[in-house]
Amino acid sequence: QVQLVESGGGLVQPGGSLRLSCAASGIIFRRNIMGWYRQTPGKQRELVATVTYGGGTNYADSVRGRFTISRDNAKNTVYLQMNSLTPEDTAVYYCNAKHETTWFDYWGRGTQVTVSS
Description:
Helix content is 0%, strand content 53%. A hairpin with a 6-residue loop joins strand 4 and strand 5. Strands 2, 4, 5, 6, 9, 10 and 11 form a 7-stranded mixed beta sheet that branches. The protein has no helices and 11 strands. By secondary structure, it is an all-beta fold.
């Protein structure tokens, strides 16, 4: 059974930091590009960042330089370090696994990140 379980969301003040974690099970971790997406009411789900098995990364322009995605292949876990957070970063953040060959997607349930004073 495939499971992607996010954790680390919460309420943080503008300028603060948060680290999200996603623990994957039921997949061949090394065969999946891992990523983080986010969704705000009224907007489509958007890509935040992705990371390949070998560590290659891709970031949305809105988060580049502030967020860092990484993965621990031994722990089947992907992380998103978020710094210099702004209210515009408020969203539900979803963990994603995309099979490198088929591009089949698995999704986590999401974790809420709220940036507010």
